[in-house]
Amino acid sequence: MSAEDSKAARLLGGDSFSVQDAIGGWRGFVESAAPGIVFVVAYLGWGGFRIPVIASVAVMAVLVAVRLIQRTPATQALSGAVGVAIGAVWAWRSGDASGYFVPGLWVNAAYLAGVLLSMAVGWPIVGVVMGLIRGEGTSWRERPAERRRYQLASGVVAGMFVLRLAVQVPLYLAGAVAALGTAKLAMGVPLFALTLWGVWLLARGAEGAPEPQDPPQTTR
Fold it and tell me: A Pfam family this protein belongs to (predicted)?
């Protein structure tokens, strides 16, 4: 499970929703956004792909090093470092700055396919996760109202991935590197936090949702 997945699980199981926790705290938010911001700025300043890639990797390396030196949890920073490294390798091998964003597009497409598959087979991913968090296993599948809420919540998650792909893929195909980088930043942690809030609202309403009862039979 990734750092983002673990964070989502903790938030969905809480009695209240914290925006700060959803974005990983302000430090976590900066760590997530900084490499992408540096990449876009370097691209606008120098063009090409070498300097933007090197700059973003260097920033990510510094952020991880600071975490390790301070002996603070580095899970989120390390998770981000893996994504930055893969994007950097892809851009370097392709010789195109837009290649930096290709792995992220594939990851979003894979997550979208997984969520849609879980919904199609009647095991919405939000229900599976909430069943584990609440310790109720798969009993939620026996309650139609709760199952419908989890289907809807999973649809919200799928919508996030659809929106990302709908905006970012055309920008990638058009070679609009700066616009693509800006869109990726805006639709990264902020959109994830907004989506998580929507899922939390639906999942909270599903907990212990009463099933409609048949009206009592009257005798004559």
Answer: DUF3159
Find the distance separating the first CA and the last CA of the chain, reported in whole Å. Answer: 60
**Following DSSP, what letter does each residue of 86-108 receive, concatenated?**
HHHHHHHHHT-GGGGGHHHHHHH
DSSP structure class, residue 122: T
Spatial CA neighbour of 58 closest among 30, 38, 83:
38
Count CB atoms within 10 A of the CB of residue 83: 17
Contact 35, 189 (CB under 8 A): no
pLDDT one digit per residue (tens) for the chain, 220 residues: 455 555 566 667 666 777 777 777 778 888 889 999 999 999 999 989 999 999 999 999 999 999 889 888 777 777 788 889 999 999 999 999 999 999 999 999 999 999 999 999 999 999 999 888 888 888 999 999 999 999 999 999 999 999 999 999 999 999 999 999 999 999 998 999 899 999 998 888 665 544 444 555 544 4
DSSP string, 175-209: T-HHHHHHHHHHTTHHHHHHHHHHHHHHHHHHTTP
Domain boundaries, the chain: 3-206
Residue 3 near residue 76 (C-beta atoms within 8 A): yes
CB 22 within 8 A of CB 197: yes
